[in-house]
Structure formats: C-alpha cells, structure tokens
Amino acid sequence: MNPDSPPELLRVSVWRGKEQGRFVRYEVPRLPSQTVLDVVTHIQRRIDPGLGYRYACRVGMCGSCAMSVNGVARWTCRTHVSRVASADGELEIAPLPNLPVIKDLVVDMREFFDKWARAMGRFHGSAGRHDEFARVDPAGERRRAADAGIECIGCGVCYASCDVVAWRPEFLGPAALNRAWTLVNDERDVQRDARLRATSGNRGCHACHTQGSCTERCPKGIAPTAAIAGLKRLSLRAPGTQRGD
Questions:
Q1: What's the CATH number where 24 sits?
Q2: pTM score of the predicted model
Q3: How many separate domains does the chain show?
C-alpha cells in the first residue's frame, strides 16, 4: 500500500435507537486484521460517542459482544472484517434478533436467562459438603453426552439464530434446552424427570423444527440440535411429559 494514498474505507451501517430505530451510515478506515468489534469501537470513540454496545474480554471468552453482522449473529471480537465485508467495503451491524433492544446494539438478555431458569438449568444434587466426592466415569455414555454441550457460555447467538423463537416467543430456545440436556445426563443430579417435564411440550423440545441454525452458528462448536433431539427421545419415556402438537 502506498503510504501517501488515502486509507481504504469501510461503509458501515449501524442500528441506532430502540425497536423502532434506523440504520446510520459511518465511514471507518479499513485496517489489517481488523475485527467487527474494532469497527464498532472506532465509531464510538472517534465518531459518535453516543453509540451503545456491549463487550468485555475482546478474546472470545465472554460472548457479550455478540451482534448481528450482515444478518448473521456472531461474536464481533472473533469476526474479522475481511471475512464478512462485501467487496466494496459494505458492512451492516445490528443488535441480536429475538431479544428486546435496550439501545443501539445492546439487547436485554433477561428473557434469555429467564428461560434457562424455566428449563431448570440449575444443578440439584443430593450430596452435602461433608459427603465423599462423587465418582463419575469420564468415558461413560451419559458423561460424554453432557460434555458435548457443557462449554456453553450463554452468549445468545443460538437463540438469536433460531427461527422457532421468532415464531413462538414462548419457546425455551436452544441454549436453555442444551443446558437442560447436560444436567439430564449428569449422574449426580436428582431432578432428571422434573427437568424432562419442564422441557417437553410446545414451549420445549417438541417445538424444535430441527433446522440446525443454532448448531451451525454456535461459536463454541456446540450442537444444541443434537441436545434437543436427545431430550425428545428421553421425554417419550419419562412420566408426566407432554408431546408437541
């Protein structure tokens, strides 16, 4: 690149406002190894300090920087501009779908985590602090099933990518159901049947259409689609569970 030539520019459309906001266009210098989060940070620090967005670690550990980039939910700290910008430098950044917008690129995650609670996403064991440690075979079938989904960090990318959530707002969503699946397969947990009842029916696993968007877009490589299929199988044998219509 000629140091005397003007910098190459990105033309970035960013959502501003709340649910009824609009896209505002900004021009941002295009730089080597630039991430989408770098672009948003440049706009907030150099152009428009009123822009609201959320981030913390910047290294793909917390998931709080998740946004919609060109219509796809992503972690913006791990998404390089070179992968997603159009040939002429166009980029669109919006808040995550399926969640209420607080301001600009910030969404309200309460509904997402409330559904974790409704899916009984909390471990309940029978042992106390003075009991012997449980011995769980790491090669056991149930332990391996739990391990496949246990790395979820609750970023909301799968929830934002789920069409069923958009169609049925009461649907628990892939993250909550994946969490339930890990606990159903935890040999130490004592609420397996209650959890299967809580996650069955038309707001639970039976509402899933198995489209696979959650699995395709999970930044951690988790397969909520497989977890939901497992819940469907187990719920057929569990007492008191509901079926989908």
A1: 3.10.20.30
A2: 0.92
A3: 2
